[in-house]
Specification:
- By secondary structure, this protein is an alpha+beta fold.
- It contains eight helices and 16 strands.
- The mean pLDDT is 97.
- It binds N-(5'-phosphopyridoxyl)-D-alanine (PDD).
- The site of N-(5'-phosphopyridoxyl)-D-alanine has 14 residues, from helix 6 and strand 13.
């Protein structure tokens, strides 16, 4: 079965899916996106993702491309038409197509919307989680509004490519004070030497991750010792455990930061426990 994408009102074969060359997403990165996990045929935490999409659109003054229930239907329909049981669904909204000009286009320009979905092998993810991933540290290179989930990801692309070229999966940004902000496409966590789970507050410097929010719910439910505060690169390197969270990776243990082995070099027990419990704290929407 060929893959299907939703583009501006139509379900089209993935190989033919296209937007106009003067789409503002293409020319100015003038758009926003969401990635939701699909797990056992269900879209995970869709309401929270759509809420965040709404916030990103509002912050950038981009109109909704369609009514919210219609968008939720399209998301489920793209997953269904692609027969994705486990994987991700991607939603992108841009300010639309207009003659290239930095100013916002006139009010009759409608936003562009694209929804795609793809399968990912959950066994591969489990295999990666069994061994953990390595990260590099990388100086913050992004604009301050990282709370908006915009498609302007060139800084993240450069950071993650640097990680890849050093045999790592992720780059952990650090700010001018040496504090870890987040990963290029994930939120960052450690378990301190004293066994306290720590993640940076979402007030500044990071995207308010949906996976992060689910993990915070779990932490409370399970009574895990926790502090929401910034942590430095040095503290992370001496931590007992580290991990990242995102809809695409869920809770993924980190076993090396630059040249420093984290803990005993194996995924930590807190990370593995949170990973195992993750779906007990999510909201599902069956496709
Ligand atoms: N990235 N921080 C950044 C910079 C991200 O891009 C992401 C998600 C996260 C985690 O957010 P969430 O838990 O809501 O997925 C944090 C997605 C998965 C991506 O760009 O592919």
């Amino acid at each position: 079965m060929s893959r299907i994408a939703y583009v501006n009102g139509q379900y089209v074969p993935h190989k033919d899916a296209a937007v106009h060359v003067e789409d503002r997403g293409y020319q100015f990165a003038d758009g926003v996106y969401e990635v939701c996990e699909v797990w056992q045929g269900k879209v995970v935490d869709m309401p929270r993702h759509v809420d965040r999409l709404d916030r990103s659109l509002t912050e950038l003054r981009i109109d909704w491309p369609m009514a919210r229930p219609a968008l939720e239907f399209v998301i489920r329909e793209v997953v269904r038409r692609n027969r994705v049981r486990d994987g991700i669904v991607y939603i992108q909204v841009t300010r639309g197509v207009a003659k290239r000009d930095h100013y916002f286009p006139s009010g009759d320009v409608v936003p562009s919307i694209v929804v795609t979905a793809r399968t990912a092998d959950p066994r591969l993810a489990e295999k990666t989680a069994d061994t953990g991933i390595s990260v590099i540290t990388y100086p913050e290179n992004r604009w301050p509004r990282v709370d908006i989930k915009t498609v302007a990801l060139l800084p993240n692309v450069l950071a993650k490519q640097a990680a890849k070229e050093q045999g790592c999966k992720e780059a952990w940004y650090f700010d001018a004070d040496g504090f870890v902000t987040e990963g290029g496409s994930t939120n960052a966590w450690i378990v301190s030497k004293d066994g306290v789970l720590i993640t940076r507050p979402a007030e500044s410097g990071i995207l308010r991750g949906i996976t992060r929010a689910v993990v915070l719910d779990l932490v409370e439910r399970e009574g895990i010792s926790f502090e929401e505060r910034p942590f430095s690169v040095d503290e992370a390197k001496e931590a007992r455990e580290a991990f990242v969270t995102a809809a695409s990776t869920l809770v993924m243990p980190v076993v090396r930061i630059d040249d420093s082995v984290v803990g005993n070099g194996h995924p930590g027990s807190v990370a593995l426990r949170l990973r195992a419990l993750f779906h007990t704290a999510t909201d599902f929407m069956a496709v």
